[in-house]
Amino acid sequence: NEEEDGLHFVLLPFMAQGHMIPMLDLAKLLSLRGASVSFITTPLNAARLRPSVDRAASVSPRPISLVELPFPSAAAGLPDACENVDELPSPDLGLPFIKSTKLLLGPSLHYLRHHHPPPSCVITDSFLPWAREIAREFGVPRLVFQGISCFSTLCIRNLREHGVLERAGSECERLVVPGIPHEVAIKKSQMPGTQFKDLRAEMREAEATADGVVVNSYEELEREYLNIFRATTGKKVWMVGPFSLANADEGDKIVRGKETSSEYQCMDWLERKEPKSVVYVSFGSIGRLSPPQTAELARALEGSGRDFIWVVKSWDGLPEEFKERPITERRMVIMGWAPQVAILSHRAVGGFVTHCGWNSTVEALCAGVPMVCWPLFAEQFFNERQVVDVLRVGVGVGVENPNGWAGEEAGELVKREAVEKALEEVMEGGAEGVGRRERARELGDMARMATEVGGSSFVNLTRLIDYVWKCESTKDVRES
Ligand code: UDP
Q1: CB of 337 closer than 6 A to ligand 1?
Q2: Which atom of ligand 1 is nearest to 380's Cα?
Q3: Is 282 in the pocket of ligand 1 (CB under 6 A)?
Q4: What is the pTM of this model?
Q5: Does the structure's ipTM exceed the value 0.95?
Q6: Domain Glycosyltransferase N-terminal, which positions (predicted)?
Q7: In 10 A of CB 331, how many CB atoms?
Q8: Does residue 406 register a pLDDT over 60?
Q9: Which atom number of ligand 1 is nearest to the Cα of residue 378?
Q10: What pLDDT does residue 451 have?
Q11: C-alpha angle 385/127/21, rounded to 5°?
């Protein structure tokens, strides 16, 4: 479509891996359709994303511009070169970090005023409410990038709007979500967003006044929740995911995210394994288990007798022999960062112990891999409910309280027996296990079909582009 050639999307991601990576995938999808994309970020993040952008350039009619704006860490009171949440020395710096992103507003405006073509649309992370100033200045639509599911968004929204949260007394009171088709309940302590109160209010205001929402999900996965979300918010919603499928071949999957020294080694290691025999264990880009919990999980993985790949952020709590020999025939311990999408997509992987971050969840679905759910914080307890009760492609290990990043102390340890039991159910599990794996495979097939030409997400992306194009033409009329 030649008409699309004129569009220029400005994407503003929040600087955390779980936000930047899917947004870059969205940028790839837009650029494949012939739009120009400016992806505004900082030098450290640009360096991490560059290999992925360079690979995409070879297949896209228009390369994505990575716009590098220096991030004034010092002015924000943050340590030097602290440009991504995963670099923060302490979770207590989370709020100052989020607030300090506002320092990028001036430089972003300056850049866009001096570059051609002018923006046609701004797509912004909900953590960056200040980005509405950019859309306002250029008189273009502003869309919110929603990196979590419709299901979780709706649960959080309904608990708040119906006053359920305020009425709840103790932290362990069970809150039943009103206004949705499945019975979903979580503990009050598992509800996200009790921190960062003033920021949340600003974010909600920016979301309420946005022109629409772009979601990393697909209609076949949660159509009924999408319908309720649309009906209750009156918002335009475009489900154009799973974004990770923008990475078609293994090389694209491997360079997605951040450099790792072990990437080819772990793919070779997987090559030697039987189909669906390996467990992949990861708690996302910032999740951490306490040292005692790490030790307990190590015992569970060893005790399960299964081969596993485990991505860790520190050696604390791990048995000495893991440190001395991170790679054996049975295990592969990866320190730091793993090529997750490539690993999950490998035929040898049969189960995923996950913190239920939404990206990880959707990536597992795309690969048809059932999950052992170990939520840590944020909306992950809702994602667990969606995976376990609604989609029925996972088993919970029984985490009670938030922990792992936001500074909360973990409650009771998840015991070795609970992990081994959940692993057994997911990897074997008799008839139920078969059903779970079958559903996971079907959801993966649906995800791929959704993103192929003519599929629901493909068509929704066309509609989004058409919408922006329409805004562009009415703007031209207004200006002439
Ligand atoms: N990821 C990865 N390698 C790692 C850890 C994470 O590639 O070692 C990617 C993962 O594939 C996903 C993102 O980082 O795309 C993490 O997002 P998610 O929403 O799952 O969790 P978060 O990190 O935001 O808690």
Answers
A1: yes
A2: 25
A3: yes
A4: 0.96
A5: yes
A6: 9-243
A7: 22
A8: no
A9: 25
A10: 98
A11: 70
Are 404 and 288 in contact by the 8 Å Cβ rule? The answer is yes
Q: Pick from 416, 436, 418: which is nearest to 426 by CA?
A: 436
Q: For residue 70, what are the CA distances in angstroms to 35, 73, 239, 350, 417?
A: 26, 9, 32, 42, 48
b or e along 391-427 (b: 16 or more beta carbons within 10 Å of the residue's beta carbon)?
bebbbbbebebbbbbbeeebeeebebebbbbbbbbbb
Residue nearest ligand 1's atom 16 by CA: 18
116: DSSP letter = S
> Do residues 260 and 311 make contact, with C-beta atoms less than 8 angstroms apart?
no
Binding site membership of 403 for ligand 1 (Cβ less than 6 Å) = no
Q: Give yes or no for a contact between 69 and 108, defined as CB atoms under 8 angstroms apart.
A: yes
The rounded distance, in Å, linking the Cα atoms of 458 and 452 is: 6
Count other Cβ atoms within 10 Å, centred on residue 443.
19
3-state secondary structure of 443: helix
Protein residue with least CA distance to atom 17, ligand 1: 18
